[in-house]
Structure formats: C-alpha cells, structure tokens
Task: structure prediction
Amino acid sequence: MKRLLLSLPMIALTLLFYQCKEAKGKESTDALEASVISNEALIKKGEYLVTSIGCADCHTPKKMTDHGPEPDMDRWMMGYPSGDSLPKIDKDEITPGKWLLFNNDLTAAVGPWGISFAANLTPDETGLKYWKFENFKRAIREGKFKGLENSRPLLPPMPWENYRNLNDDDLLAMFTYLQSIKPIDNIVPNFVPAAEIK
Result:
C-alpha cells in the first residue's frame, strides 16, 4: 500500500509532464499553422494591392489584343524587356510643355528627364531577390532608386509620391507578394538622361 501511495505522485507527475509536452507541441504546431496562414494572407493582400494600384501598368510588358494592350502574364512584373529597342525619338518633341511618350508596351517612358525603364520587380537576381523590406520601403516612401539611401531619385512615370502614404502593413504585403511570384531573368537598362538621347 505504501508503495502504491509513493507511486501515485510519480505517476501524476509523469502524466502532467507528458500533457504539458503535448500541449507545448500543439502550441508550436498552432503557431506554425498561424504563421503559414498569415504569410498566405499577406501574399493575398499584397496581390490585391499590387494589382489594384496598377503596378503592372508599367512593370509588365503588354500584348496587343482586340481590347487594346493587356498584361503579358508570362512576363508578369519583369519590367522593360532587355532585348527590346525603342524607335527613334525626336528630341524637339520631348522638351517641357510638349510630349511625354511611352513605348508600345508601356514599359519605357520618354520626357524632359530622358528615358526611364520600368524595373524588374520579380524575385530574380536581376530584380528584387536581394532587396530587404527596408529597401522597398525607402523606394516607395522616399523615391530612391533601388531603395538605396544615397541613390538617384526614381524617375517619371513612377508615381511614388502617390504611394508614399501606404502604411507599413500594406508595403510589407506588397513586398511579400512580389517575393512570391515567378522570378524572371531580365536586366533592365539604366535610364538615359535627356542630353544623351540620340
């Protein structure tokens, strides 16, 4: 009987230990499931924002259809296609107060600043692969090229001034979504200052 009485606390402690361990394991599993769900929700929200505010208008090459230009989903967010060339530009027509021009798929723009090319926003080495969230925030909030502190300003037609008031949650969702899409190897050319347009 004494042995049984001494064994009961040991049995109770052993059961308690395994229940705690099981509960802790369940907490870890629940936390893991919650983080996966959160990441999926973040990507979904990011996709909604990226498509709603028109990022593809400039960052995705277009296909001409009966309804006009539509995004080429095989080249989603790859920016200006590196192999393309622009038609001859009449420099007299792009001085202030005159024309602002776009190429046929809307990934390059020409104006008094020169020629700007839409960036590759895919998670490829030639795009956003090595970007940190801080770079993305700085690019959108401060209009800095590649989100680098001492870089040149982003050029028209990038409307970063319209997007700079997006909150951190929105920007994180957009960045997370862009990091989740298909990477596309596409080196976008550097901008051409107006004085160098031939």
User: Anything to note?
Assistant: Residues 62-196 form one domain. Strands lie at 62-65, 68-71, 101-102, 108-111, 114-117, 192-193. The two ends are 102 Å apart (CA to CA). The chain is about 40% helix and 10% strand.
